[in-house]
From TrEMBL:
This is G8 domain-containing protein. InterPro entries: CEMIP_beta-hel_dom, G8_domain, G8_domain-comF-like. It comes from the Eukaryota. The chain crosses the membrane at residues 128-145. Belongs to the comF family. Residues 1-19 form the signal peptide. Keywords: Glycoprotein, Membrane, Signal, Transmembrane, Transmembrane helix. PROSITE patterns: G8. The lineage of its organism: Eukaryota, Amoebozoa, Evosea, Eumycetozoa, Dictyostelia. Residues 551-676 form the G8 domain. The keyword Signal applies.
Length: 1393
């Protein structure tokens, strides 16, 4: 028993050694922070566009305390730091040791405990009490020392443009680093402790009333902006240097002293003198001075008083506010390791008993009570509900708890106790299988049963080191096995302090991912920032007039916000931070000859409408602003055009003559991929690319699951610290975000310094919008809550009917929580949309609207978490569903909303990433343009091929529709007779041709594509496609491509290490060959991680590489599939082919040609793979592979897969199709010739047309009981140089008329009349258009397609693999006159061999 108390004391001592905490306090515009003790403090400011009131985040970063409440107390808008419990009588003192003192003291304490325990081993009486007292006093002593060594990080987070009335910082030991601070009265006193030597740094300070700063070390103010008359300013250093750079045209008095000669730049008049050994300068800066000044005073003090008219900005034409800093807040250091996280599960709702009785877990005196029935279960589990942590292989976790019995067990013996991890145990109880625990107990750690016999509380800590990684959603529990009870005492178990500990992790791990792909190249933008030339800044040019200067406006009066404000003609108006009212401006108009220009200063504009016919600058291409600027849009939902005609309301409209330039600080990269998986509970993440992101900015981590819309595992976090490629988040993650060498999810930067945000109308999904009909240059802009759902042309950022532009772009912007789309190109060409991030969006995101948009560049963008509008398009059949335009769905294709919506493929699309959406990339078919261009009926957008589609990636999509995919080429959008739109979501063919020569086919080409977590990686309903360099990971099927299709240089990985892969993604298929008419070539493909799926009832439920399509008897495969150069990595041979045996033609005739034998593991020898039917056992080289249900044979040169249709009315009728062949068997085909000695190599013939087999051999066709008197044979696939020797049974004495016929040969040049030959061999040696032979039992015809010449148009060939084209229209017509009109015959095998 004493051992447990020792352990308890030890835990308490160690617990007091390390602790970290975070506290967030909401404050108002009068904030004070006061240090009561010498706590090391860092104070800084972060601009946060996501909040509306200031918040102070306090992080414990150094030393040890029990809780931040011990050293932080908030009262009357003052934050007190120090021993607040003692100072304010809040309870017992919780002062703690510094980390170094604490550790040293604890080591002494442990030695003491050890020595006493040795003595106690000999005597357990008073010595035990002594030990207990020693432990208690040790803990008290630990908590009785000062707080020296404790460090706090204080982040004052403020909205864009926020102004404090008062900020008072009374600090003892603090580093102060502030930027972009707007305040009326500022006090920073860092001189309280004369020993403190921290400096004060301030960038861009705006003070309207008073300033008083004192420091024992350096004070530097870079960019001091003054606001009013009579304000006083004082900056003092007792031991360091003072440097102040005043921005703008300062007017007023100055005075400063220094230990040595101070320096001053500027044009103020001053006198110099000496006083008490210091240099003293006094003077003034007159109204005529037109420059800022800088003072450097070693060991000095500066005072000055401004002389500006109260309540206004300077109006001197040359006055400008100081440039804002490019650099963001200085990041605090990232700890060497992330701390261990203890999660205590003490609530009754945390636990559930899993067994077959009606026992209910209750809470009793703070403990979990498990009262079992008298004859309780022999095996029961106490399980943690909602355990969301993932468990990572080889990491060491801990589970600790206290336990006791309610009473001694009577007649019950505990036989086994274990901590278990279960996979979904909450199913219904089954008498024979129980709860399925045996199948789902995937990890266990044993505990001694003796633990569970104590009537006193016993503590246990169990170490768990998983041998595999486990996904979130697993269940943590205690499993107890015991003998059945026989006594009268009811077993009652108590548990408390149930704690799960996630281990500490290094901040510098090894094995970070440096390459995002293995086969493909995912293109990335240039690593350099865009060059800047600040001499070209619009706000620094001469000739500007200040908005706040009455002389700028007619009538010498600054217009009020509640009026329609039109800038004066031929005028360039400059807006500064002090120019605008905080009220909402109704409408601002920029005439064609005027310009509205924002200064590089913190500006907030509240507005309803802005109409630009001239120019509107918030920065420029060569002069990106570093300041924070926020434009807030207001306005209730309406369809009235309040901006201008056809431009709607609540936003910015730019006419054809107008120009919009919004260019904020460039962040690069705007998104990256994880370099290591981030697990639930993690706060530190690692990215692959160099970034210049900042503390306080928001990022989004995309999902690692398939069904993105349902699992909702995208997460937004703020950056707390950043160091190179390491990013520390403000709070732990809730979900796994996966990264491995296979694929990695994205991390996108949401924040920008320039923000457009909608402030009302959110419940109506009615935000602001930006519409540009002329040139526009937009970069570094964040758009929040923008777009007006189901109102066309009201999108967050939108080029509208601007035709062909020359210098327009949207670059490194972000769209967050959009009501309607992201970035739209409508009726506009030659626009660059690059490096943008979009997250949480309704409707298609990157959007080409009408189908006429071409030669645009969409590159290096990220789209994530895209939602359909209304019910997602679904359906299990190929046609999909129909959707029609309505008020609730103005663009019916939004029922299939995707990240990138490409109505015209003739654009450059590269380097993008898409997460989520109905599809990631959607290429709908528009046979005619829509919308404003629906009258251009000569244009067929769907006939345009990809100009460039390269280096793009996609994941977590394609699950709404049975045939959905991450890259989806399909669906059809059209204009109905009433002018409204209709959308069909499913299969629609697409023919892509040369624009200048429509008779020439051009292939859709996709290169360097990476897809993961998709229903199908790429789905293409069109007729010509090439996919070159392709990676598929964790997809249900790697791809589904129709028409003439090539998949080349690919890696197909059935299963990665992602533990969050949805079970519904199984089975995993490599590629399913279609059952008719397509031409599919697969070359140079590596297949990886294909293993048998437990419980698969047929091959189509298993993880297979090549999969047959076998459901139909109507649709039957011809010779349409071929492969070459397959390799396998960790794949079972049994999984190479998955053919399902069904009573259908598609199943009987499944086949493909392997041009080098690699797909069956015998590289170098071409193979023909056929179905289970002996029909494909055509030579002695054939072998049957039972795991595949298929034959594979050596393919002889010149021997090909051929196909014919036998059309016999009443027997085999092409116009009467029966998909389920009930009673539809009409006969059989059997091979003869080339040594076919037996008659078993046959396949049944049904009432549906179509027979496929091997060429250059004999086919014996026997139709049950009676051969047809009249029929025809359609030679659909008999390639040039091949033939079929067809034998058909007829009664002796039958006469024949046989000729050929070409359906479209109106001159009968292809009509050949056949006559009786001398022998079957004569027929065989002939050309198929001269002779037939009847030997009294069998009619022999050599079937040849005489249309063919061997031209290159007769086959599809890529990479040395050839598939012959189906050629329709050429027939053999047979008429038979049987004796007595009776063609009944028995089945007799042909004698010709």
């Amino acid at each position: 028993m004493n051992k447990f108390i020792y352990l308890f004391i030890l835990v308490l001592i160690l617990k007091s050694t390390f602790a970290l905490d975070t506290k967030v306090i909401e404050v108002n515009n009068q904030l004070s922070i006061s240090s009561l003790d010498n706590i090391e403090t860092k104070v800084y400011i972060t601009i946060d566009s996501s909040i509306s009131t200031p918040k102070v985040s306090i992080n414990h970063i150094k030393g040890s305390i029990e809780s931040l409440d011990d050293v932080v107390y908030f009262k009357d808008n003052t934050i007190h730091l120090g021993d607040v419990k003692t100072m304010f009588n809040l309870g017992s003192s919780d002062e703690t040791l510094s980390s170094s003192n604490r550790l040293g003291f604890n080591l002494i304490s442990l030695v003491g405990i050890f020595m006493v325990s040795l003595f106690t081993m000999k005597s357990t009486g008073s010595n035990f009490k002594l030990l207990l007292l020693f432990g208690v006093f040790s803990l008290i002593y630990i908590h009785a020392l000062d707080v020296t060594g404790v460090g706090l990080d204080i982040n004052i987070r403020v909205p864009i443009g926020y102004s404090f009335e008062k900020l008072d910082l009374q600090l003892k030991n603090a580093q102060v680093d502030l930027q972009s601070l707007i305040v009326a009265n500022l006090v920073i006193n860092n001189c309280i402790d004369t020993m403190a030597d921290d400096s004060i740094f301030i960038k861009s300070l705006y003070v309207s009333k008073s300033l008083k700063i004192c420091s024992n070390n350096n004070v530097m103010i870079d960019g001091f902006n003054h606001r009013s008359d009579g304000a006083s300013y004082e900056v003092k250093s007792t031991n360091g240097d003072v440097s102040v750079k005043v921005a703008g045209d300062y007017k007023g008095s100055i005075k400063f002293t220094a230990a040595s000669a101070p320096s001053m730049t500027g044009s103020c008049d001053y006198d110099s003198s000496t006083s008490m050994g210091k240099q003293v300068i006094t003077g003034s800066c007159a109204d005529s001075i037109a420059s800022s000044f800088t003072i450097d005073a070693p060991n000095g003090e500066i005072t000055w008083t401004s002389n500006i008219p109260s309540g206004s900005c300077p109006t001197t034409a040359s006055w400008r506010e100081s440039a804002q800093p490019f650099d963001g807040p200085v990041s605090p250091p990232i700890p060497a390791s992330t701390p261990a996280v203890n999660t205590v599960y003490s609530s009754l709702s945390d636990w559930r008993l899993m067994e077959d009785s009606d026992t209910i877990v209750v809470l009793d005196q703070g403990a979990i009570k498990v009262p079992l029935a008298k004859w309780g279960p022999a095996d029961w589990f106490l399980c943690r509900t909602g355990f969301t942590s993932t468990l990572t292989k080889d990491l060491v976790y801990k589970f600790s708890f206290d336990f006791k019995l309610g009473a001694a067990l009577s007649g019950i013996t505990i036989t086994k106790v274990s901590v278990v991890i279960l996979d979904y145990p909450w199913g219904p109880f089954n008498v024979t299988r129980g709860w399925g625990v045996a199948e789902s107990e995937i990890q266990q750690e044993f505990i001694s049963p003796d633990t569970f016999t104590s009537l006193d509380w016993v503590s246990r800590t169990i170490t768990i080191q998983p041998t595999n990684s486990f996904r979130s959603g697993m269940v943590l529990g205690l499993r107890v096995k015991m003998s059945a009870g026989s006594g009268d005492t009811l077993p009652v178990f108590y548990f408390r302090n149930m704690t799960f500990t996630t281990p500490t992790r290094s901040s510098t791990p090894s094995g970070l991912i440096t390459a995002d792909s293995k086969v493909v190249t995912l293109r990335k933008p240039s690593t350099s920032l865009q060059p800047q030339d600040y001499s070209l800044c619009p706000h620094l040019q001469s000739g500007l007039k200040h908005w706040h200067d009455p002389s700028t406006w007619p009538g010498a009066s600054v217009p009020l916000p509640n009026s329609v404000i039109t800038l004066p003609a031929n005028t360039k108006v400059l807006v500064s931070s002090c120019s605008l009212s905080t009220d909402t401006y109704q409408k601002i108009i920029v005439p064609a000859t005027s310009e509205l220009i924002f200064s590089d200063a913190p500006i907030v504009l509240n507005v309803k409408d802005i109409y630009v016919e001239g120019k509107f600058y918030i920065g420029s291409k060569d002069c990106r602003l570093n300041s924070t600027v926020q434009v807030n849009f207001y306005g209730a939902k309406t369809t009235t055009d309040t901006i201008s005609s056809m431009m709607g309301s609540k936003g910015i409209g730019v006419s054809k003559t107008g120009f919009l330039s919004i260019n904020g600080k460039q962040y690069h990269n705007t998104w990256s991929r994880l370099a290591q998986s981030a697990f639930p509970g993690d706060t530190l993440i690692f990215v692959q690319d160099n970034i210049n992101w900042e503390v306080g900015q928001e990022v989004v981590l995309t999902t690692s699951t398939w069904k993105d819309e349902f699992t909702k595992q995208n997460e937004v976090r703020k950056i707390s610290a950043i160091q190179g490629k390491k990013v520390l988040l403000d709070k732990p993650l809730n979900f796994l975000h996966f990264a491995s060498e296979d694929y990695q999810v994205e991390v996108g930067l949401l924040s920008r310094r320039i923000v457009f945000k909608s402030m009302d109308g959110l419940n109506d999904f009615f935000g602001g919008h930006v519409l540009m009909m002329g040139e526009g240059q937009i970069s570094g802009l964040q758009l929040i809550n923008m777009g007006q759902q189901n109102i066309k042309a009201r999108y967050p950022l939108h080029f509208h009917l601007a035709k062909t532009l020359t210098s327009s772009y949207i670059s490194d912007c972000s769209v967050y929580q959009s009501f309607y789309r992201c970035f739209t190109i409508h009726g506009t060409n030659n626009v660059n949309v690059e490096r943008n991030v979009a997250y949480d969006v309704y409707g298609h995101c990157y959007y080409l609207e009408d189908g006429v948009e071409e030669n645009n560049t969409i590159a290096y963008n990220l789209a994530a978490y895209v939602h359909t509008i209304g019910t997602p398009a679904a359906g299990e059949g190929q046609p999909g569903e129909m959707f029609y335009e309505s008020a609730a769905l103005r663009q019916p294709a939004d029922s299939a909303a995707g990240g990138f919506y490409i109505t015209n493929a003739y654009n450059r699309i590269y380097g993008n990433a898409a997460s989520g959406g109905w599809a990631s990339y959607s290429f709908p078919n528009l046979k005619i343009p829509i919308g404003f261009h629906s009258n251009l009926t000569s244009i067929n957008p769907s006939s345009r091929t990809t100009l460039e589609f390269d280096g793009n990636s996609a994941h977590s999509s394609g699950y709404h529709f049975w045939f959905g995919s991450c890259i989806y080429v399909g669906g059809n959008l059209s204009t109905q007779s009433d002018g409204t739109l209709a959308y069909k979501s499913g299969r629609v063919d697409r023919d892509t041709v040369d624009y200048n020569n429509p008779q020439v086919t051009v292939w859709m080409r996709f290169s360097n594509i990476k897809v993961s977590l998709c229903s199908s990686g790429i789905g293409h309903w069109g007729n010509t496609i090439e996919v070159v360099k392709y990676e598929s990971h964790d997809n249900k099927v790697a791809g589904t491509v129709f028409g003439e299709a090539l998949l080349d240089q690919a890696l197909v990985n059935a299963k990665s290490a992602n533990i969050e892969v949805d079970k519904s993604l199984a089975p995993n298929w490599g590629f399913q060959f279609y059952d008719t008419w397509t031409h599919t070539i697969l070359t140079n493909i590596k297949w990886k991680n294909f293993h048998p799926r437990v419980g698969a009832e047929n091959p189509h439920e298993d993880n297979k590489i090549i999969v047959s399509m076998t459901h139909s008897d109507i649709y039957k495969p011809q010779g349409i599939s071929a492969v070459k150069n397959f390799t396998f990595d960790n794949c079972d041979v049994s999984q190479y082919v998955g053919h399902r045996i069904q009573d259908t033609g598609a199943s009987r005739y499944f086949n493909y040609v392997d041009f080098d034998g690699s797909s069956v593991g015998s590289s170098g020898t071409p193979k023909l793979i056929g179905s289970h039917s002996s029909w494909w056992n055509y030579s002695s080289s054939c072998q049957f592979q039972a795991d595949w249900n298929a034959y594979y044979c050596n393919k002889v040169s010149g021997q090909e897969v051929v196909n014919i249709d036998v059309e016999a009315p009443g027997l085999i009728d092409p116009d009467v199709l029966v998909d389920v062949p009930n009673n539809s068997i009409r006969g059989k085909t059997t091979l003869f010739k080339y040594g076919q000695a037996d008659q078993t190599k046959s396949a049944v013939v049904t009432s549906n047309v179509g027979i496929t087999g091997i060429s250059n051999v004999g086919w014996y066709l026997y139709l049950n009981n009676s051969s047809p008197a009249s029929f025809r044979i359609h030679t659909r696939l008999i390639p040039y140089g091949t033939y079929i020797l067809l034998a058909i049974r007829y009664p002796a004495g039958t006469l024949f008329n046989i000729n050929t016929f070409y359906q479209w040969d109106y001159q009968n040049s292809k009509k050949f009349i056949l006559s009786q030959g001398a022998s079957a061999d004569v027929v065989l040696q002939g050309n198929g258009k001269q002779y037939y032979y009847f030997d009294g039992q069998h009619l022999y015809i050599k079937l040849v397609n005489h249309l063919l010449t061997g031209a290159s148009t007769e086959y599809f060939e890529r990479n040395g693999v050839k598939i012959y084209s189906i050629s329709t229209g050429f027939y053999y017509i047979i008429s038979a006159t049987c004796p007595g009109g009776n063609c009944a015959v028995s089945d007799v095998y042909p004698s010709f061999n």
